[in-house]
Write a structure and sequence with these properties.
The protein is of the alpha/beta class.
Length: 302
């Protein structure tokens, strides 16, 4: 169990990146969802023992990460959002170099381990190719190969599918799903589809606060009967905004909007039909509620 309690991080300024985040993350895949700038990367760096929080505690299976970051380093696999490679090295050489930096070895030798890891992430056929020839998805798979070396208890992946084409994204999904069978895998992203596809549990962070957490299926069920969709013209869209919570308005055919709204059962606008709720509906609804709560929160004097 990864337990995060009242975590605060304040940068000079002061800028509060985290404002008392508390989460309990069990074994398996857990999604951390939020917009850019929400505080996700700050949280990832604290969990990886790379950044000291201003307040709060983090424990991994009872070991205090804040007091002793070394307690997590040997049990951690980390794929940050921006992972650097030496482009002139081959995939096998790059992975071997990273394993040496991490101090990871194997009874049968590091070369054997490199081969096994490349096979696991479907890069065995590209082992001798220069990293500069790798696609974005191949580089991400090389990154996850180094992250899982040493059989870590906790694997953190930060925005892993950003910029990947659909085929590479699906390949990466399969790798992450396999990893989540016997360890804690924390997936931080702003892409709702990643969480909906992979994670049975999730949390949403906005403005440094955890605004919701729980099971993805349960979150969708809470919206059953309350999500409606219709095609409307721009002037009609403005009228609907005045009476309903509009969570999505996607331009179609250059002049109309496919619009999703949330409300009580039977209150849909004329021409709208009830549709099954998605995790995106949950996310947009939570974000609207959070913005409304911020607007209602009293402004305190400095």
């Amino acid at each position: 169990m990864l337990r995060i309690t009242d975590l605060v991080k304040i940068y000079p300024g002061p800028v509060a990146a985290l404002k008392g985040v508390s989460l309990e993350i069990p074994e398996g895949l857990f999604g951390l969802l939020g917009p850019n700038g929400a505080g996700k990367s700050t949280l990832m760096n604290i969990l990886a023992g790379l950044l000291e929080p201003t307040g709060g505690t983090v424990t991994l299976d009872g070991a205090d990460i804040v007091k002793d970051p070394r307690a997590v380093w040997s049990r951690l696999g980390y794929l940050p959002q921006d992972f650097g490679f030496y482009p002139s090295l081959s995939g096998a050489q790059m992975l071997d170099f990273l394993l040496r930096l991490k101090g990871v070895d194997a009874p049968q030798g590091r070369k054997r381990l490199v081969d096994e890891l490349l096979e696991r992430v479907n890069l065995a056929d590209a082992a001798k190719r220069k990293v500069r020839t790798y696609s974005g998805g191949m580089r991400q798979r090389l990154g996850i190969a180094q992250a899982i070396a040493g059989n870590p208890r906790l694997v953190i992946v930060d925005e892993p599918t950003a910029g990947l084409d659909p085929e590479e994204r699906q390949r990466f999904y399969r790798i992450l799903a396999e990893l989540g069978r016997d360890r804690i895998v924390l997936l931080s992203t702003h892409i709702v589809e990643d969480i909906a596809t992979l994670c049975p549990r999730f949390a949403v962070i906005r403005g440094g606060r955890c605004v919701t957490s729980g099971g993805t299926s349960e979150a969708r069920r809470r919206l059953e009967g309350r999500v409606f969709e219709g095609i409307v013209a721009p002037d009609e869209l403005e009228r609907i905004r005045a009476s309903h919570r509009v969570t999505q308005a996607v331009l179609v055919e250059g002049s109309l909007f496919r619009t999703r709204v949330q409300g009580e059962a039977g209150t849909q606008p004329a021409g709208f039909v009830q549709v099954p709720p998605t995790l995106e509906d949950v996310y947009f609804g939570v974000m609207d509620e959070s913005r409304a709560a911020d607007a209602a929160r009293p402004v305190t004097a400095a």
